[in-house]
Design goal:
This protein is α/β, with parallel strands linked by helices and about 280 residues long. It has eleven helices and nine strands.
Length: about 280
């Protein structure tokens, strides 16, 4: 797509002076150029601010705006390092990539960091990407049903369907009603049929984290409620949350990448606490 030419190249290197005018050396003033993957496409000289527009359209949350492959930290040969290599290879090889990734693991192990790092790497190559947290997307869709809303379901879903690469963050986090599952399947199956690459993150695994026979260590009512809620979550699988047919579709669409490790947010909080003990 546009041969992955950056804005600065389009504005400085793609044009040459003639006696009377400036002519693009790629499209020769026609406004279109031949892309080996997509055929005739708009030439970057017609959209000198494309890079800025792509970044804005990607809707990367401010909290993750500085996430990149360069600042992802992992130990050699750890599951986080393996996930990092998957992410790096995808950015390097795209668009010659036919399967996305589903990053699976507990909170705080770097799943969203890597997902954002992938789309930032692809934005730099000139591809249109889009980030959305699945619960927020569902709320936007529901909001479009409001008769006084200025949005429509088609308008909400257009960037989700059209992006070259989509990140769907927190898959399975929403209570799986029939409407939620049908909507998830509609979105993901549409991208599957259109051969669009999708990156997923989820806190749920294919196997329960704990056995169903394990008992809480305390009988305190408050403790038991907290532990029981956690036990239910850890006994729940991704298939429980998204349904069998959608989980089956993900096997075909994505490589499964399991990330293990400690919650970096907890580690950060502990370091902050230690710094106050002077």
């Amino acid at each position: 797509m546009f041969d992955h030419i950056e804005e600065s190249t389009a504005s400085k290197s793609e044009r040459r002076n003639t006696e009377k005018t400036v002519v693009c050396e790629y499209c020769f003033g026609t406004g279109t150029k031949l892309d080996p993957e997509k055929g005739a496409v708009a030439c970057p000289c017609q959209t000198p601010d494309r890079s800025r527009k792509l970044s804005a359209a990607a809707r990367i949350p401010l909290r993750y705006i500085n996430c990149s492959l360069d600042n992802f930290k992992s130990e050699q040969n750890s599951s986080q390092n393996i996930a990092f290599r998957y992410a790096s290879r995808l950015v390097l090889d795209y668009p010659a990539v036919d399967r996305g990734l589903v990053f699976m693991g507990a909170a705080g192990v770097g799943k969203t960091h890597l997902a954002v790092a992938i789309i930032k790497g692809l934005l730099a190559k000139g591809f249109a990407c889009f980030f959305t947290e699945f619960g927020s997307l569902l709320k936007e869709i529901q909001g479009s049903y409001n008769p006084i809303s200025k949005s429509s379901e088609l308008r909400v879903l257009a960037p989700v369907y059209q992006a070259d690469v989509l990140v769907l963050d927190e898959l399975g986090a929403t209570i799986p009603t029939d409407w939620v599952r049908d909507t998830m399947y509609q979105i993901i199956n549409k991208r599957y049929n259109d051969k669009k690459l999708t990156i997923f993150t989820t806190n749920y695994l294919d196997e329960p984290r704990i056995a169903k026979t394990e008992e809480p260590e305390s009988t305190s009512p408050t403790f038991s409620r907290k532990v029981n809620a956690e036990r239910i979550r850890e006994m729940t699988t991704l298939e429980d949350r998204i349904g069998t047919r959608l989980r089956s579709r993900l096997y075909e669409m994505c490589h499964e990448v399991l990330i293990e490790g400690e919650d970096y947010r907890k580690q950060l909080d502990e370091r902050r606490f230690d710094s106050t003990r002077i």
